[in-house]
Amino acid sequence: MRWWSVANFVSNAGTWMQLTVQNLLVLQITGSAAATGLSMSVQAAPALLISVFGGAAVDRWPRRLTAAVSQALLGAVAFVTAVMVALDRLDLTTLMVLAAVTGVVATVDGPACSLLGNDLVPREDVPSAIGVGALVHQAGRLTGAALAGVTVGFLGTAAAYAANGLSFLFVAAVIPFLRPARGSAGQTGTVKEDGPSDTMSVREGLAFFVRRPRLLALAGVTGVSAVFGRNYQLTLAVLVTGPLAGGAGSFGTVSTVLAAGGIVGAVLGARLRRPSVRVVGALAAAGGLLQVVAGMSPSLAVLLVMVLPMAVVESVSDTAGTAVLQTDPPAHLRGRVLGVWGSIGTVWGLGGPPALGLLMELAGARGALIAGGLIIAGTIGAGHLLRERGTRVPRVSPVAHLETAA
After folding, report:
1. Dihedral sign (CA 372, 374, 375, 379)
2. Lowest mean pLDDT segment, chosen from 18-27, 52-61, 291-300
3. Are 67 and 186 in contact (CB under 8 A)?
4. What is the chain's alpha carbon radius of gyration, rounded to the nearest angstrom?
5. What is the spatial distance between Cα 100 and Cα 98, in angstroms, rounded to a whole number?
6. Cα–Cα distance measured from residue 167 to residue 191, given in angstroms and rounded to the nearest whole number
7. Which residues contact 98 (CB under 8 A, 6 or more apart)?
8. Mean per-residue pLDDT of the chain
9. Helices (H), 87-201
10. Which of 259, 351, 271 is nearest to 310 (CA)?
11. pTM of the predicted model, to two decimals?
């Protein structure tokens, strides 16, 4: 698990370095902000369309081999991009094709690597392993964004892509030496308890997800939070530079506090032993209420005080939700369930910012934060009340009813 965490840190740093540089590269080639957004959408689109098939592949194929091959393929794409940038042969069409290929491979790589990490610890430690993964992700994100500017400044854009390629190869080289922990899901493989699956069909994963109330509730909580909150890079940027009369430096400070809160939340999330949808909902509702208070902040100092707990609560909620998602399904279905979740999450990722942007146009930055927070807390609270009311309604069997009438 230590080796896997180190490998993930290196990979995340390389990935965020490339993502940072890629946006700058598209702007350099086209001079268009719209093209930059299009490149991000092209890379995300495969997750919307074929994540369910990628998850099915993870359930069917050996997990370590799948993760190693997908990491090697992502590294190859990064190296090809680096060579084309160095030779000044990269145009927008080629960059879009490479971004689409990256997105396709990621539909398999994401669930494969997530589930592989869970196999390295006993079942009861999976929530902690997920928390450690969240911490590594946050640390890699900060490091990669910082290294991007340094790398491009001293070595050029091609070097950033080459560094990301090396980070993928490092992960691929570590994977063959990993062994499942005793008592982990990896010890039992990816088969049903009553025998192996002959179909490993996508439909089986979809049916399980739809028939599982816990997963549907988790999807609802995460969806409303993703659309009306969490997009703080958008809402807080407008709030800081608009009503609070701050500049880019002020928003940079807010972003740093958000990142620090994410790291603290990941540490706290790693201590969860029994994560549940109820915990996720309570944390998401609390985050919504904190967002309401943040929207009413009279100054940057007050906003900074509110931003830290907002980020902490969001990070713990994400860790708890991921733990539920990866442990609730039986082992032979987890890849397909993660594939379904990947498609759902992409819908929120693509649809959330435009919806929130429209809300900001109508209500302003403060109004969007306040209204969004109230919608999150109100929706989750209403859902909880309906569930409690449903469980309290006594069910009388027809036989008992007839006996009473007689």
Report:
1. positive
2. 18-27
3. no
4. 23
5. 5
6. 32
7. 77, 80, 81
8. 85
9. 92-118, 126-155, 157-174, 185-188
10. 259
11. 0.81
